[in-house]
UniProtKB/TrEMBL annotation:
One of its GO terms (cellular component) is ribosome. Belongs to the mitochondrion-specific ribosomal protein mS39 family. It comes from Balaenoptera physalus (Fin whale). Coiled coil: none annotated. It is found in: Mitochondrion. This is Small ribosomal subunit protein mS39. Mitochondrial RNA-binding protein that has a role in mitochondrial translation. Keywords: Acetylation, Mitochondrion, Repeat, Ribonucleoprotein, Ribosomal protein, RNA-binding, rRNA-binding, Transit peptide, Translation regulation. PPR repeats lie at residues 223-257. Residues 640-659 are annotated as: Disordered. Residues 649-659 have a biased composition (Acidic residues).
Length: 659
């Protein structure tokens, strides 16, 4: 568009000779899933959707904690079945369509390919974790006069000590983790049942003269790795005394242990029986001094092991635990994931805003333990800090398995119900339930109590509807709480009219209609709860009626004007031999007076007389004063009064004779 003779204006400050040097940035290597991670960071959790683990066929999406547990078990069972088929027939699953490669989607080869007797065949069987085949191959090599190298012998010891001289199962890691938790609970508690249970669960124990000890004795030469492997295997499979003796032999041979072996020795010291806590602590201090003498630097696992041991020392372990934390800070190691309620504030100040990476097998217990401390301290602000830390980066991965996630959110929501404003609590209720966890009955009871404190009882029918959806239809304590809150206070239209008629003459009719609708909603909810006692699910046992439940439902029916259903409730008192309350009988008497039915009033007196209630006399006087009775009704009432007086006199005489 410009002619050739057009002059191009010069840019002010441009100098060809003095141009700035262009610095080319260094090439950044991105991971294969970097794009997926960037996309995932833009997506947030949908509070209206089911948890991601349950997103399957809509018919299969669980609606209760029990169903979610069954769903996860079934899903895990399906995964194990798929892995079994893939590993059993690997030749049919050779096509790799995943990019990048996902190893767990491809078959694993568990059958040895090298035949014959050789050290290479032994190494292959060790790699495949064939315990029995590896031991047999080692024995065959010795019988053939072949010398096994020290490295291969150490690898065989690693396999035997890790698996406890047994073939590892497919879910070996999961079993070991559960066994460790059971043993820890049994050690801390004083109950005998957990100890028996933990002893039953812990099936792999160290036996004397097993294959590991035999091969260790047959080795012509041993290095520090050989001794360390044996020590760690003995501690893992509950042979602490043998481990400490073998450590003494290691020192006599002028060898040094590594930091992982010292961690196991510290654990072994705490497991030794027939020693006082002070003696065990002194032995742990001796091991730490030996680490210093051997120039072995402790790691995070070392201090975590010490703190776990101090937990078993009860009150004696408090002061050494604080000393351990100070020592950790002195050498620049971050605080562990567990702490007492007195130092939780310092721990949170250290951790706020940080993103975690796994460093300890028990890291997934931090958020559960921290929220338990927040709940015991009744500190809502601290709970918010813990929850914010959970949502920082990928820290939510440390919340643990399903049961720990449910425990965390149950404690968090229970603290919200206790300390937070009701509007904020209801917002959390919609955000967390059921998209994050399914509430237990106690969680809903906590919410009901929060509604009671905030005078938001109109939401009770909706809570009952939600509780049915979450599988709590037959929870007696939950139904009792709902009925009690609905029947405790009366909501008559007259109260609203007398308060607001003077200042707001236009609105009383609207407020009166609202109050009556609330009573109707309560009565509908009570009728629904009543149906749970009458029509039982095939999987549930029929619950027995409580006297309080009968009283609450009858009162709610009367207040809503459903008199026929209320009078039918009286038959249930006789049928189930439950005693009605005096307040209920007075309300029935008032209902009979409002309808002008002396026959119903006489039925009330008969019911009170059948149970020999003290209120029978006052009900009779009220009946004579408020109703006009026929001659037959007077005679029937006279016979009832005489019968009641005779029964009361007989009871008085029995009491006198007893005295």
């Amino acid at each position: 568009f410009y002619s050739g003779s057009a002059a191009v204006p010069e840019v002010e400050g441009a100098d060809a000779t003095g141009s700035e040097e262009v610095v080319i940035p260094k090439k950044k290597t991105w991971g294969k899933v970097a794009v997926l991670q960037a996309l995932a960071s833009t997506v947030h959790r949908d509070a209206t959707a089911a948890p991601y683990a349950f997103q399957d066929d809509p018919y299969l999406i669980p609606t209760s904690s029990m169903e979610s547990h069954s769903f996860l078990l079934a899903k895990k069972s399906g995964e194990n079945a798929a892995k079994f088929v893939i590993n059993s027939y690997p030749k049919y699953f050779q096509k790799d369509i995943a990019e990048p490669h996902i190893p767990c989607f491809m078959p694993e080869y568990f059958e040895p390919q090298i035949e014959g007797i050789s050290e290479a065949a032994l190494q292959e069987r060790i790699k495949l974790r064939k315990v029995k085949a590896s031991v047999d191959m080692f024995d065959q090599l010795l019988q053939a006069g072949t010398t096994v190298s020290l490295e291969t012998a150490n690898r065989l010891l690693d396999l035997l000590c890790y698996c406890g001289n047994q073939e590892p199962s497919t879910n070996y890691n999961f079993q070991q983790r559960e066994q460790a938790e059971e043993l820890e609970e049994a050690t801390e508690g004083n109950n005998e049942k957990p100890k028996k249970k933990a002893g039953h669960q812990l099936g792999v124990t160290w036996r004397a003269k097993n294959n590991a000890e035999r091969i260790f004795a047959l080795m012509p030469e041993k290095n520090a790795h050989s001794y360390c492997t044996m020590i760690r295997g003995m501690v893992k499979h509950r042979a602490p005394t043998q481990a400490l003796n073998l450590y003494t032999e290691l020192l006599n041979n002028r060898l040094r242990a590594d930091v992982h072996t010292f961690n196991s020795l510290i654990e072994a010291t705490a497991l030794v029986v027939n020693e006082k806590f002070e003696e065990k602590w002194n032995n742990i201090l001796d091991l730490l001094k030996q680490m210093v003498a051997q120039n072995v630097k402790p790691n995070l696992q070392t201090f975590n092991t010490i703190l776990k041991c101090l937990r078993r020392f009860h009150a004696f372990g408090k002061l050494p635990a604080l000393q351990t934390l100070r020592e950790m800070k002195a050498i620049g190691i971050e605080s562990p994931s567990k702490g007492s309620s007195l130092i939780i504030y310092d721990i949170m100040n250290e951790l706020m805003g940080k993103k975690f990476s796994p460093k300890d097998p028990d890291d997934d217990m931090f958020f559960q333990s921290a929220m338990r401390v927040c709940s015991s301290l009744r500190d809502l602000e601290l709970a918010y800090q813990v929850h914010d830390l959970l949502n920082t980066g990928d820290n939510r991965k440390f919340i643990g398995p399903d049961h720990r996630r449910n425990f965390y959110y149950s404690k968090f929501f229970g603290l919200l119900c206790l300390m937070e404003q009701i509007d904020v609590t209801l917002k959390w209720y919609k955000d967390l339930i059921p998209s994050v966890f399914f509430p237990h009955s106690q969680t809903l009871i906590d919410l009901l109590q929060a509604l009671d404190v905030a005078n938001r009882l109109e939401l009770i029918p909706q809570i009952w509807k939600d509780s049915k959806e979450y599988g709590h239809t037959f929870r007696r304590d939950l139904k009792e709480e709902i009925l009690m809150l609905m029947a405790r206070d009366r909501h008559p239209p007259e109260v609203l009219l007398s308060l607001l008629d003077v200042y707001y003459p236009v609105y009383p009719l609207i407020l009166t209609a609202r109050a009556s609708q609330l009573q109707v909603a309560f009565a509908d909810c009570a009728a629904d709860i009543k149906s749970t006692y009458e029509s039982q699910d095939a999987r549930q046992t029929a619950p027995s009626w409580l006297a309080s439940s009968l009283n609450y439902i009858a009162v709610l029916f009367l207040r809503a004007g459903r008199t026929q259903e209320a009078w039918k409730m009286l038959g249930l008192f006789r049928k189930h031999n439950k005693i009605p309350r005096n307040e209920l009988l007075n309300e029935f008497m008032g209902s009979a007076k409002a309808s002008g039915s002396p026959a119903q009033a006489i039925e009330i007196v008969k019911l009170a007389g059948a149970f020999s209630l003290p209120i029978c006399e006052s009900l009779t006087q009220r009946l004579m004063a408020d109703f006009t009775l026929s001659q037959e009704q007077k005679e029937a009432l006279g016979d009832l009064t005489a019968l009641t007086s005779d029964s009361s006199s007989d009871s008085d005489s029995d009491v006198g004779e007893g005295k």
